[in-house]
Each structure stands twice: as structure tokens, then as C-alpha cells.
Amino acid sequence: MTAQYDANNPDNWINIYSNSFEATYIQGKQVPIYTPIPKTNLNLNIDSPILAIYSESNQYPNSRRYVGRVYQSILGNNIFPSPTLRHKGKSIYSNETIFLEFTQFDDNYDLTLDVYWKVEQIAITIFKYVGSINTNLETKINTIENKIDQLQEKLDQYFSENTTEVAIQQEQNFGAVSFTNII
Predict the structure, then answer these.
(1) End-to-end distance of the chain based on CA atoms, in angstroms?
(2) Which of 2-6, 22-26, 37-41, 121-125 has the largest mean confidence?
(3) What is the pLDDT averaged over residues 43-53?
(4) Domain of 85: which CATH number?
(5) Phi-psi category of 133—alpha, beta or left, where left has phi over 0 and alpha has psi -120 to 50?
(6) Distances (CA, A) of 156 to 33, 143, 149
(7) pLDDT tens digits for 86-103?
(8) How many CB atoms lie under 10 A from the CB of residue 61?
(9) Whether residue 55 is found in the same domain as residue 101
(10) Are residues 139 and 127 in the same domain?
(11) Are 84 and 77 in contact (CB under 8 A)?
């Protein structure tokens, strides 16, 4: 089902998260080596199905490069062995904003950030959409309701204009009937 948003209105977006991650360096025998940024659960408890995520990395200051994936994590699972279920991953790129529309399984969900192992530093900013979301079904229902209202107004107008004529005709007919009956 397709939905309609007012994504160009800045009042419909709220910054909910901003953080930078860096790989840790370990002194090796000859040169320092780093351990990759671990997979991170962001603990955001998000209630909007629509997000925009911007990422940037000092390694790729002026280019668009793959830097990892972000996953929707469904919270509070007590059915499966793992308490958190990951769903629907989306690639993220440096110096690019991605628009995510997640399936709303529950009232709230979280995000898991999985940074590509070669990326040594990444900054993430997440915006939550708080504007109205109109699905095609809602739009069609609203259109039908508006048409019903328009028809009702036309019917009301028709009957209010023609009711007096009908009443006059009925009076004349009843009067003629009663006059005929009298004669």
C-alpha cells in the first residue's frame, strides 16, 4: 500500500539521534591496527515508521561510499530464542541521506547499526517523521466521504427547493379531490 507524506516540510522531522563511532586502535608489533566498529543496538524506542538517516565518515569526506547497514529491530520478542528480531536492513552510504519506511509490527521498534568492517569512523544522524501519513486507503475513504457529503448537500438542496412545490400540488390535488367529492 502506497502512502503519502509531506517530507519537504521541515516541521515534520525531528532529530532523534546523533552520534559518532570510531574503531579502536591496538598497538601491533610494527604498526597500530584497529578492531572494527561492533554491531550496535541504538536503544531509541522509535514509534514512527518513517526515518531519514544521514551518515558521514572522515575516511570519505567528499564521496559516496558504502559504510554499513541499518536494521529495524523488533523489541520484546518472547517467542523466538533471541529477544530482538532484526527485520529489513537498508544500506547506508557516506555523505548521503537515506529515507526508510519500516513495517510497523508493534508500537515501538529500535535500530541496529552494522558498520562495514573497513570503516574506521562514522557519524550518524537520525530524523523521525512526525507529520501526517496518508495511505491510499485513507485517501480513498476520505474521497468517498467527501462525495457522500456533496451528494447529501445536493439532495437536501433539491428537496428544500421542491418541497414547497410538492406541498402546493398536494394541496391543490386534495382540494380538487375534496371539491369533486362535494359536488
Answers:
(1) 73
(2) 121-125
(3) 87
(4) 2.60.120.1300
(5) beta
(6) 81, 20, 10
(7) 677 889 999 999 988 877
(8) 9
(9) yes
(10) no
(11) yes
What confidence tier does 18 reach under pLDDT thresholds 50, 70, 90? very high
Number of domains in the chain: 2
Looking at per-residue confidence, does 80 or 58 come out higher?
A: 58
Q: Give the domain extent around 154.
A: 135-182
- Distance (Å, whole) CA 44 – CA 23: 22
Q: Is 124 exposed, middle or buried (0-12, 13-18, 19+ CB in 10 A)?
A: buried
Do residues 47 and 122 share a domain?
A: yes
Residue 52, Cβ density class (10 Å: 0-12 exposed, 13-18 middle, ≥19 buried): middle
Same domain membership, residue 123 and residue 40: yes
Last residue of a domain, one of 111, 132, 153: 132
Nearest to 124 by CA among 102, 91, 92: 92
Residue with cell string 448537500: 153
For residue range 28-43, what is the model confidence (pLDDT) as tens digits?
778 878 789 999 888 8
**E strand spans, the chain:** 3-4, 13-22, 24-27, 32-35, 40-41, 50-56, 66-74, 85-93, 96-101, 109-115, 121-129, 134-135
> What's the rounded Cα separation, in Å, for the pair 57 and 2?
33
If asked whether residues 150 and 93 sit together in one domain, one would say no
Together in a domain, 126 and 149: no
